[in-house]
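Possible regression after last week's pipeline update?

I re-ran a chain I had predicted before the update to compare outputs. Posting the input and the new output here so someone can diff against the archived version. Not blocking, just want to make sure nothing changed silently.
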Amino acid sequence: PRVSPAATSTPCCQQHSEEVCESCVVKTTLTAENAVEANKLSNNYKFGFKKWKSHVTARPWEDRSEIVKELYSDLNVIRGSGGSTLTCGNVLYLLLFGWWLWLLYSLVAAVMFLTVMGAPYGRLCWDLARYFLWPFGKVIQKVEVPKSHRACEVGVGESSALLGGPTPRRWVATGHWHRASTAAWLCLGYPVLVLAHGLVCVTAWLLIVLIPVAKLSARAASRVLLLPPERVLIRRLRTTEVPLEGEVILCCYRAANPYYYKYAVDGINVFAVNLLPLVLVTLVLGYVDSHNHLTGSAVKFSLALLSIMPLSYYIGMAIASISAQSNFAVGAVVNATFGSITELTFYISALIKGSREGNRCYAEVVKSALTGTLVGCVLFVPGLCMVIGGIRHQEQRFNSRSAGVSSALLFLSVGGVFAPTLFSKVYGKLVCGECHNVTQNPLGHYLCHNCHFDLMDNNGTLYYSHVQPLVYTVSILLPAAYLIGLFFTLKTHTHIYDIHISDCHMPGHHHSAVVHWSRWRALVILLLSTLCMSACADLATEHISPILTNSTISQYFIGVTVLAMVPELPEIVNGIQFALQNNLSLSIEIGNCIAVQVCMLQIPILVLFTIFYPTNFTLVFSDLHVYASMFSVVLMNYIFMDGKCDYFQGTVLVMVYFILLAVYFFAPSPSGC
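New output (post-update):
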């Protein structure tokens, strides 16, 4: 949306009278383009709702910047002065595609000359060979055939005015497709060149910055190569020359554009579009090659994990679209139901597999992933956003009151989640797997390994009579506290977010909302993405066992890094985009909301799941998880105390996160793995 950025406190609209704007002078004013975007912006500031940066509606073309307009423009616009064509991107095109396209067109030209009847297409291929070697600063036009040629094509009787005078272009096309040279071209030349351009198109599209080359190849294969040779004119443009006759089909000045990371297809970012085929490859390879004949478990695990990233994006986009087009109740239900579906599908799949195999290692990996998500969202996500946002803005301010609500809930949730762990440390019996007498004296010191607090002593009396009831109590209280937090921030104390969605429209903003995804379409995509997410999570847990057993890296480290942070990458990208727009409040809320949902929703759901499907998951964490989580929450509250920050404070959070990762990296594997 075209907003007055969300971190500035300004009046609603300068055109409004002072009386109208008195109520919102002290509020942060956001100017949305339409009602749907206004609803999405409002949802971004609601606790428990998914924060989404991208548009859910199509932006008016006239309101876009010139840089963005260039991304979506066709390659048929002639500029008065295109500048020098000798750029790094153009040279990259020459090295990747230009030289072998020139060679291929030259070979096809030779073949067409050998057929004799295909000589016109041979001359066309020779001209196109020189064009595709360096297409920059050149133009391909569709020219009109002289009238004398038309008469020869259509015949004297057919062109008589008494027959109604059919349009010349139509009859020229008919004559073109009935030529012998055209038949030879369609059999010998065209298929080879279409395959080559298809390869160029796919490769350039996947590289993203070379999308202009993909457009160039697609237009060449679909239009240029299907025209009669005499209607194709290739010429070099001079700086002062503008062709006046004929339709311009291709005119390219740059092969690369670094701003194509902003490109979207039907509202979907190009990165998510490019990663979607990876999901299909993962599912086909995972379920067809179940015995690992084609690839090993490590490859399938990596593919399944990477496939989670685009699926997380589609789930987030669908949730934001449905919430923006629905009332508050529907949006709250959708966010509560599907907001944590990405993580929960993986955790539940891992617990089921561990229960079937009788392997406690899966439960420990799930605990590591939960802790890694908590620590990463408290330290790494806001820290990285502070660093990147601080590079552009010297000092950034955020709403300390709303951050204080999230911090209070974090303190409560961390205390509740780790209460059973602290209880077991106090009342549990310390059991060690192996002890050695260091002094050779029976009364001397002993060195013990693999020690843990046994909760199953005396037939599990301590666990079943004390720890388990405590776990169930905590699992009831934490969601209740989450609901109270929702009621506090969304009903009784909405003013703490200090947000006003202005209905003052800038010039050119009087447009009806054209949504990218309707509610039903978004719902279908949400359900399909959730289904694919479950399948990918199942494949990831199916093939993680060899990595856990054969890897020299601690299982703690695998859980807190790869399994915890990869599903959160779309959220991290959203946070960075908000920070670059000087909207650090939303960047911080993204991390805090995820951390709160981990403790207050995801963990109670896992406990509830273990009641109906017994697993090895118990709410007793290792000392390392407890210390890392508590220290992270305390440090975050200290940094956020004054409501302002800079890149230095962000660097502190990121460095502390990397220190904790180093601790996990060198830590021994948990017991049971």
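Follow-up from reviewer: compared with the archived run. The chain is about 60% helix and 5% strand. Marking as no regression found.
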